[in-house]
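for the recovery benchmark. tokens below, seq after
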């Protein structure tokens, strides 16, 4: 994952150094971004610029045996990574969308506060290299789908 939001970084540090519980995530939503979302979730597509767009829910696993996410050691230099087990299919573009180059993970369907944003990462092509600028274009009538195991999250 290219980066956690500042509130998530603070929560992790509070958990490690002060014994505070990490926040619960009853829901998670995948979003598309035209550029690096940074620490705040900036550059997300909107209905005004991408008719038909909306975040897609990918529920966290309440128990380790559930099947929405897989944990393995395939991240950079053998780091642990979490990957989706189910495809993530966005709505149909009613008109051409701006090129997208990143995805983000959010705690809410429509919230835009920094505390709603979990983190983001670049879209990648074959071999894991980031897509060349300007990114992926979605034309009218088309959809974007992350296949199973297509989203990867790891901490750096």
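predicted aa per position
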């Amino acid at each position: 994952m290219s980066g956690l939001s500042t509130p998530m970084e603070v929560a992790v540090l509070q958990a490690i150094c002060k014994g505070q519980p990490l926040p619960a995530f009853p829901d998670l939503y995948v979003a598309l971004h035209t550029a690096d979302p940074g620490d705040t979730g900036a550059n997300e597509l909107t209905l005004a610029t991408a008719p038909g767009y909306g975040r897609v829910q990918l529920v966290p696993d309440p128990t380790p045996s559930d099947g929405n996410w897989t944990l393995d050691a395939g991240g950079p230099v053998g780091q642990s990574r979490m990957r989706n087990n189910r495809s993530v299919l966005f709505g149909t573009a009613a008109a051409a969308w701006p090129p997208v180059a990143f995805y983000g993970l959010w705690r809410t369907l429509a919230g835009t506060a920094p505390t709603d944003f979990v983190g983001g990462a670049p879209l990648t092509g074959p071999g894991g290299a980031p897509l060349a600028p300007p990114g992926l274009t979605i034309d009218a009538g088309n959809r974007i789908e992350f296949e199973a195991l297509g989203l990867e999250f790891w901490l750096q």
